[in-house]
Amino acid sequence: MKYSATSRQGRQQQIYNSDGARLVVGVVPILATSKQVVLVSSRTRPNEWILPKGGWESDESQGSVGTETGYVNVLQKPFIEESALREAYEESGIKGTLTCNIGTFPHTKHFPDSDIPTCEFTFFEMEVTTLCEAWPEQGERQRGLFNFEEASKLLSHKPLMLQALLKCSEGLQ
Q: Which phi and psi angles does 69 have, rounded to 5°?
């Protein structure tokens, strides 16, 4: 995978599911050596810690999006992993290997007057092998290393992310 020195901005290439929910990918990054969890500060709320995540973009899927409407069938697109690795690097300056798909979670926020979630998150467990000294969003975010219990407490304000953390291999032990 090729890593860029700058992070992507905007949602021009964003992929949506057939209900109109934005497809978001993220990682539960665990250091291979110490088993610490890597969290990043939120861009909009710098005092809150979150898992690295962001939009799955059309050039990271296999070929075209599949339809003129911009919708995609996630099960037919194996390159969601590329987006997860890109987001992990851009937001937290980490590199490694995705070890498993933790699952897909609907966002708790819904479109007005609807039960359709605004986003659908897919999280992967990531074995982190490299902590880069510089990364694209370094000036906008902090990176922190936490043991599993600390990470769980820090993510308690984000139930969806906490659920992903608890479903990773460290959480199942």
A: -80, -10
Strands 22-31 and 119-131: parallel
Contact 40, 48 (CB under 8 A): no
The pTM for the full model equals 0.81
Sort residue 69 into left (φ over 0), alpha (ψ -120 to 50) or beta. alpha
Q: Which of 81, 33, 36 is nearest to 56 (CA)?
A: 81
* Look-up of token digits 């605004």: 118
Give the separation between CA 52 and CA 26, rounded to whole angstroms.
Answer: 6
- Give the pLDDT confidence of 41-62 residue by residue, as tens digits: 999 998 999 999 998 876 665 4
Reduced DSSP (H G I as helix, E B as strand, rest coil) percent helix, strand, coil of the chain, to 5: 20, 30, 45
Q: Return the closest-CA partner of residue 83 out of 103, 104, 57, 108.
A: 57
Kindly state the average pLDDT of the residues 28-46: 95
Q: Name the residue among 104, 120, 111, 93 with its Cα closest to residue 7.
A: 93
Domain extents in the chain: 22-167
The CATH number fitting domain 22-167, selected from 3.90.79.10, 3.30.2020.30, 3.20.20.450, 3.60.21.10: 3.90.79.10
CA distance 82 to 57: 10
